[in-house]
């Protein structure tokens, strides 16, 4: 039952990503060319509602199902890993035209070349795990 | 005008993404789409090579179910709810065609020049896709999250680390499109 709700959330998210065109290589390219407000509007409007909602959750101490605390732990402090890791991510986001969520959506949509991108992402994650201790954080 | 097939504007998509995040918070989880890559590495036995992957992946199975849902959502949307064409700014489409020979803006969802299956026999295209994916996977873990984890969840929670990561995402993306694309694709 629990897993059915996660599956439904995933389906919902997949449809949003595809229908909003946020999963399209063209939209990512256009965003980095500042050619349209579309992607900024998606991220921006999600963010405005997100900030308001999370402030309300904190103010009224709203709990998750079962009365547990919402999963809102603060991020660990730091600059180097967030900045360098972020830049590396951005290089890949623009080159492949896809970030992790849309990759799976595109696989479902039948663009099988994206499986190569997902394979690359798994390899990148694995290599990060190998060299993690040698990197500045 | 076709309500089922037309793409959704930003002011529909953005609020629905925020709703997705709130539903996940409400069921006691969080919204982030890159940690499942670590989970898969862990399931595949990567813990033998690095302690980074030694965690109880069974507790993260829900994450993989969300991924499976996203795959199904992509199938449903592309097959029953879309023309599978993306119209972008005509100036950008023209520039893509002139500079890089990518002619398919407005006619496809992804450029077949890069994503048609038969293109995978081209070592250049294969390298672009593998390296692109590698950078996404490596960078997301190094930065502790991706677009959903930092740009939506983290920024919504007013986390400074997420702001730094998102600034990084855009530095990387702009460098790639404006400085590296002309070198890679011309």
Question: Quick gist of this model?
Answer:
The complex is a heterodimer of chains A (about 140) and B (about 190). Chain A has about 140 residues and is mostly helical.
Please tag this protein with its features:
heterodimer, A: 137 residues, 2 domains, B: 186 residues, mainly alpha, 8 helices, transmembrane helix (chain A), transmembrane (chain A), Sulf_transp_TsuA/YedE (chain A), Transporter (chain A), membrane (chain A)
What does it look like?
The complex is a heterodimer of chains A (137) and B (186). By secondary structure, chain A is mostly helical. Chain A folds into two domains: 1-73, no CATH class; 76-137, no CATH class. Helices cover 67% and strands 0% of the residues of chain A. Chain A has helices at 2-19, 25-32, 38-59, 80-96, 100-108, 114-131. The longest helix of chain A has 22 residues, at 38-59. The mean pLDDT of chain A is 97. With 186 residues, chain B is mainly alpha-helical. In chain B, helix 2 (35-43) packs across helix 3 (61-80). Chains A and B meet through helix 1, helix 2, helix 3, helix 4 and helix 5 of A and helix 1, helix 2, helix 3, helix 4 and helix 6 of B.
Helix/strand-derived category of chain B reads mainly alpha
What share of the residues of chain A does DSSP label as strand, in percent? under 5%
* Strand elements of chain A, count: 0
Radius of gyration of chain A: 18 Å
Distance between the termini of chain B: 38 Å
Overall mean pLDDT of chain B stands at 97
Helix content of chain A: 55-70%
